[in-house]
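Dissemination and training. As part of the outreach component of the grant, students in the summer workshop were shown how a complex can be specified as a set of sequence lines and then modelled as a single object. The example used during the hands-on session is reproduced here so that future cohorts can follow it. Participants entered these lines:
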Amino acid sequence: MKNKLFDYVERDNFIFRLSGLTKIICFFCLTFAVMLSYDIRPILCVFVFSFVVLHISEIKLSQIRLMLYYTMVFLLLNFILTFLFSPQYGVQIYGTKHVLFQITERYVVTQEQLLYQITKLVKYASVIPLGMLFLLTTNPSEFAASLSSIGVSYKASYALALTLRYFPDMIRDYNDIALAQQSRGLDLSKKEKLGVRLKNIMNICVPLIFSTMDRIEVISNAMDLRGFGKHKKRTWYAKKPLRKADYLSMLFCAAVFALTICISVFINHSRFWNPFI
Amino acid sequence: MKKKLFEFKTKTIVATGLGAALFTLLFMYVKIPTGIPETQIQTAYGVGAFFAAMFGPICGGLIAFIGHFLSDSVQYGSAWMSWVIASGFTCFIIGLVYPKLKVDEGIFTGKDMILFNVYQIIANAIAWIIIAPVLDIVIYAESPSLVFTQGVVAAISNAVSAGVIGTILLKLYSGTRASKGSLSKED
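and obtained this result:
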């Protein structure tokens, strides 16, 4: 169990110098651009672009290896399950049927299904580096500041800042309690039956949650005493001022977003790009 | 003091922050395998339901939203937005039971228990059988039969988690609170 949520390592390059606000806006623009379109051509462009940016940001492979592994397993599972549950969904979407080969009566591989599933795969795969980029190149202290500057209530942003601040503490507490309970003979492994294991997990969760409840009391009193929430607005220590590069990046990502929408509306006349008609 | 449904005082903010940290931790590391492959009972939903019942809908909704978003982002690099929204929605609806409970005064009767579970089951059913699959289809154009099957499985396992773990936590926590008027003057 790693006790830090993100391996944030400060580096000095173009991506790291951008403000958190810029990164969050670019992230949303590109993610929504990919999410809303089902045309493989612009999606592939974003896919290539996100890997180029990942390269520029100098994030080490060791930082994201585990994420990549989980993601690949997930994508593969989704790919297989989609085919198992609805092998003809592509035909339904595109309205034509070009059979490649037949496995059984129900499972016929068609070009339409293949295009649908590959588009979906690339769609998910291109969003993932963007998420990683945002997480790994933004200073955790800057998260809350950038959220509140896009209009999220500062109280909600502060809750997120508290989450990031107390996550390592929670992990430490959890480990302490788990070790203490195990030294008293509590078995958390798969050898125990389901009911017993549930009870054992409760034996760790209950002290953890009750100590959290006490801590909530202490922290909220401390914040109240310092006058938290008195004013409508607050300033953030970690907030970075916007510069020329920030405006240009935001403009670029907004343009990509607008362009994919335009392609869907004016060229494809639907979310799907249909090469079969 | 009467509890307001949508109040957002300092204590609610802190409860949201710490609750979300707890949710993230449990969501990532503490799962109970059911024996069916790839289907685990998420203990996090039990804790989410507990916080929702203790601090109200805004706190509950944000805890599940932030917690699910962070753990997805950390594990997969990018969050699966339709399910994150459904998570937030579940705990938001459970939070609606908040003004009716008096757990922090040490009261959690059999009737409260039934009330909490009714809210919890309705919330899970709406979120996982309707909202999550519909958003999957709208946002990601997933195939309907796949997402509805996933939704039903998720609804059952999350309702079990919220029902069992949430109820036990509320009962235990109410036991640690001194109830109103429990002290009496000795004659």
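The helical segments of chain B are 10-29, 43-55, 57-76, 81-95, 110-140, 144-176. Students were then asked to discuss how this feature might be tested experimentally.
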